[in-house]
Amino acid sequence: MANLRHWQGTIFFTMLTIALLLTFSFYSSSTAFNLSEAFAIKGKNQTIPYLEKGMYLIVGAFQIPENAVQYAKSLSIKGKVPRVARYRENGYYYVYAYATKDNLEYARERRTELRATSQFYDSWILYVGIKLDDLLAKEEARDIVVLEQPKEATAEDIKAPETEAFIPPPPVAQDEHLYNYRFNVVNATTLKEVPGYITIVDAARNKAMRSVSTNQIHQLEAPKTQSKEIIALCDIFGYVIEQTKFKIDDPLSAQDKSMISESGGITTVKFELARHKIGDILTMYHVYFYTNSAIMKPESKFELNSLLNMLKENEKLEIKIHGHTNGNAAGKIIRLKEGDKNYFKVSPENEEIFGSAKELSKARAKVIMQWLIDQGIDEKRMDIKAWGGKKMIYKKTDELASKNVRVEIEILKT
Predict the structure, then answer these.
(1) Which residues of 297-324 are buried (b: 16+ CB within 10 A; e: fewer)?
(2) Distance between CA 202 and CA 117 in Å, rounded?
(3) Where along the chain do the CATH 3.30.1330.60 domains lie?
(4) How many CB atoms lie within 10 A of CB 341?
(5) Ramachandran area for residue 196 (φ above 0: left; ψ -120 to 50: alpha; else beta)
(6) Three-state SS for 72?
(7) How confident is the model at residue 139 (pLDDT cuts 50, 70, 90)?
(8) Residue 146, pLDDT above cutoff 60
(9) Under a CB-based contact definition with an 8 Å cutoff, are residues 241 and 247 in contact?
(10) How far apart are CA 5 and CA 58, in angstroms?
(11) CA-based angle 99:102:107, to the nearest 5?
(12) 324 vs 283, 293, 308, CA distance in Å?
C-alpha cells in the first residue's frame, strides 16, 4: 500500500511538472522552435540563456538583466510569458515573444501582428547568426527549384540546449577617491529602460558636477565638501523630474532607501519615471533649428524620438506643439516645400520667404507635427500654437537668449 502511495505521488508530481513546463512553453508552429526552458527567478539567481542561431521577435532590450526579467514577467502575449536571453555580440538582454529558425515569412507575420498593438509598436526582428540576404535568396530559389521534402525532425534535433546560469560580474575595483554607481532608470508603466542622462549635483554648493548616462556603470568623484552629499537629478524629456539626495560614500543615507542597492562594489540607484499629466508643458531644449529656418538639425532626432515614443506608448495622448522665437523681428524664413521630407538638412530645394517671427515659430511647430505624422501619428492628436517672441524666457540680449528659441509640448489629453 505504501508503495502504491509512493508511485501515485511520483506520478502526480511528474504530471504537475509537465503542466508547468507546458504553461511556460514557447509559442510553436512548424517553423518555431524552443531554445531553452523558461527562465527561473529565485531571489538574485537567474538562469538566462544565450540566443542561439535563428530569428527572434524582440519586444524589449535591456542592459540590466533584472530589468529584462521584471519586464518579461509583467507581460502576457496570448496567455504566454515571453522569454529572456542574452546576445553574445553586444551583451544585451532581450525579451522575445516568438522565434523561428529560418522562416522569414513566419517572423514577418508575427512582427506585423505585434506591431498592430500599441504596446508592441516597436517590436523588431533580431537575426542571430543569419544574414537577411541569404534568407531572401533562399525564398527566391524556392520559387524556381523543386526542393526535397525535409526529413522529419527527431527529438534529438529539437532538444533545447542547456541553459547557462547568469553569473554576476566580478566586483569592480574601488579607488579610494572614486565610487562606482549605476543609475537604473525605467518607465514606471512599461518597465522598459529609459535612455538619457543623470545630472550629479554637489548638494552643499548646489552646483552641477557632471552628467552620466543611464543604465551603465560610472565612477564618480566625491564633492570636495565635508558632507560629501550629492543629488542625483533625473530630468529626461517626457517624464516627471525625479531626484534623490545622499552621501556619496554612504548611499543608504538616502531618504528613500528602497531606491538603493549594493552588489559587487557597485551601488545601483533606481528611478521609476512617470509620464506627464494633463496641463503639463515639456520644453524640447534639444531640438535645434538652422538659423532663420524651420529645418531641424540632425542632433534633434533623439528628443524627437522620445516624443514619438511617448505618443506611441499611449494612443489616447493628445498634444499641442508651441513654437517660440528669440524676439519679434520679421525676416527671412527658410522652410521645406510641400511634400519635402528632408527635415534635417538645408538644401537649395528649400523655399525662402519673408515673414514675421510668429510665422517662423508656426513653421517650426508645423514641421515637427509633419515629422510625427510621417512616423504614423494621427494628425487629429496634435495641434500647434505660434507665439513668436511673446513668451521669451530671457531678454533678447542675454547670454542665454538662445534658449528663447524653443518648442514646447503641452499635454492636452492622456
Answers:
(1) beebbebbebbbbbbbbeeebbbbbbbb
(2) 44
(3) 281-413
(4) 9
(5) left
(6) helix
(7) low
(8) no
(9) no
(10) 46
(11) 50
(12) 11, 13, 20
Lowest-pLDDT choice from 171-185, 269-283, 393-407: 171-185
CB 405 within 8 A of CB 286: no
Give, rounded to a whole angstrom, the gap between the first and last alpha carbons of the chain. 65
**Which distant-in-sequence residues (6+ apart) come within 8 Å of 94 by Cβ?**
51, 56, 58, 60, 61, 62, 68, 84, 85, 86, 87, 126
Q: Is 370 helix (H, G, I), strand (E, B) or coil?
A: helix
Cell of residue 83, nine digits: 522569454
Model's pTM, two decimal places? 0.74
φ, ψ of residue 303 to 5 degrees: the values are -70, -35
Q: What is the pLDDT of residues 241-272, one digit of tens each?
A: 999 999 999 999 999 999 999 988 999 999 99
| Structure confidence at residue 37 (pLDDT) | 35
CATH topology of domain 281-413: 60s Ribosomal Protein L30; Chain: A; (3.30.1330)
Report whether pLDDT(23) > 70.
no
> What are the start-end ranges of the E strands in 92-206?
93-100, 124-128, 178-187, 197-202
Pairing of β 83-86 and β 260-263: unpaired
Listed in order, the ranges of the chain carrying CATH 2.60.40 are 178-273
- Predicted confidence band of residue 286 (pLDDT cuts 50, 70, 90): very high
Helix (H) or strand (E) holding 359: helix 357-374
Query: What's the pLDDT at 365?
Result: 97
pLDDT tens digits for range 315-344 = 999 999 999 999 999 999 999 999 999 999
- In 3D space, the residue among 180, 212, 178 whose CA is nearest the CA of residue 195 turns out to be 212
Q: Which residue has the cell 512617470?
A: 274
**Three-class SS of residue 379?**
helix
CATH fold label, 178-273: Immunoglobulin-like (2.60.40)
* Higher per-residue pLDDT: 25 or 374: 374
Alpha helices in 169-325 (DSSP H): 301-313
35 DSSP 8-state letter? -
Residue 216: which residues within 8 A CB-CB, separation 6 or more?
63, 182
C-alpha cell at 174: 574601488
The residues, ordered by sequence, that sit 6+ positions from 90 with a Cβ below 8 Å of its Cβ are none
pLDDT at 213 over 60: yes
Chain length of the chain: 414
Mean pLDDT of the chain: 84
CB 219 within 8 A of CB 175: yes
Query: What distance in Å separates the CA atoms of residue 84 and residue 60, rounded to the nearest whole number?
Result: 9
